[in-house]
Amino acid sequence: MWSRFSVNAKNAIAIALQEVVKQGGNQVGPEHILLGIIAQQDSKAAAVLRHLGVLPDTVQAHLRPRLPAVANTGDDAHLLPSAKRVIDAAYAEARRLDSKTINTVHLLIGVMSEANPQRRSLFALVRPKSVSSIAAGVLDALGVTLERVHQAMSELDPNTLLRSSANFLPSETLLRTVTAATTTDESELLRASETETGHQE
């Protein structure tokens, strides 16, 4: 399912997995995905955050003390239902913007979707109305809203969005260790971008 992910988006998922494993767990949540996103300070998402006056380091400083205790169920590493919804929402945002690739901003918006149950219909997600992740709450408290992110994307010149030098590339084996079946139908993106490769955002 990672074939349509940009290099930095793949990195975000791989870093999220590493964060969980480092803590002795095997369940990846939205908080770990957000850590993976902000760990890449030259990504498109980091540029958007800086444009909003929010440094990735500030997000990390607010998020790490609030990380939930990790659990290890003894099976393969996998995404929690809340993290799967983040991926679903990222796909939905990419489709809405007619993007052939899932990038770090789409993932960021996916994380944000967990803060607003009313956005269920926007992302066509099936989720409890009371769900709100710690990661989404941190972003919301820092003033990172969907409207502001979309505004930043429209204000930033695409040429000014820094691109990663991709010093760290996650192996496909590492990504395959994450059991990440979601409700997303990837066929539209596959048909639209059979030859699309190497995006870093």
Overview features:
mainly alpha, single chain, 2 strands, two-stranded parallel sheet, 201 residues, globular
Chain-averaged pLDDT: 76
Helix coverage percent: 40-55%
Give the termini distance in whole angstroms: 17 Å
Alpha carbon gyration radius: 15 Å
Number of strands: 2
Order of helices and strands: HEHHHEHHHHHHH
Regions with pLDDT < 50 over 5+ consecutive residues? 118-131, 162-168, 178-198
Number of helices: 11
The proportion of strand residues reads: under 5%
Describe the structure.
- With 201 residues, the protein is mainly alpha-helical.
- It contains eleven helices and two strands, in the order H-E-H-H-H-E-H-H-H-H-H-H-H.
- It has helices at 7-22, 30-38, 44-51, 56-63, 81-96, 104-112, 120-123, 134-141, 146-155, 172-176, 187-192; strands spanning 27-28, 78-79.
- It has a two-stranded parallel ribbon with strand order 1-2.
- Helix 1 (7-22) crosses helix 2 and helix 3 crosses helix 6.
- It is globular, with a radius of gyration of 15 Å.
- The protein starts with 6 loop residues before the first helix and ends in a 9-residue tail after the last helix.
Briefly summarize what is shown:
Helix content is 49%, strand content 2%. It has helices at 7-22, 30-38, 44-51, 56-63, 81-96, 104-112, 120-123, 134-141, 146-155, 172-176, 187-192, and strands at residues 27-28, 78-79. With 201 residues, it is mostly helical.
